[in-house]
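Today's session is about reading a structure prediction critically. Students often jump straight to the picture, but the first step is always the sequence itself: look for stretches that repeat, for charged clusters, for runs of hydrophobic residues. Only then move on to the predicted structure, which in these notes is written as discrete structure tokens rather than atom positions. Here is the chain we will use throughout the hour.
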Amino acid sequence: MKAIARFLRGCYDALAAAGWLWLGVPMPPPPEQRPALRPPPDPPPALRPPPAGHPERVRPDLPPSSTERALWRQLMEPTGDR
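Below is the predicted structure for this chain, in token form.
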């Protein structure tokens, strides 16, 4: 059974290579030669939330007050003076 699987894998690889050549596109490297995926970079400091214990950090256990909701609404509205 291993011999049949090895033969079919070779056929698949050969047909894939022929297809890439027919399309005129360079073949991708084999999986063992592909670069490893890197984790995404950290966001810039302006987009990071404040650290734990910071006085401006939003508390998840308290709902926003009506004043906070009004301020957020004002911040989200587009202005016509730009």
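Discussion point for the tutorial: The chain has a mean pLDDT of 80.
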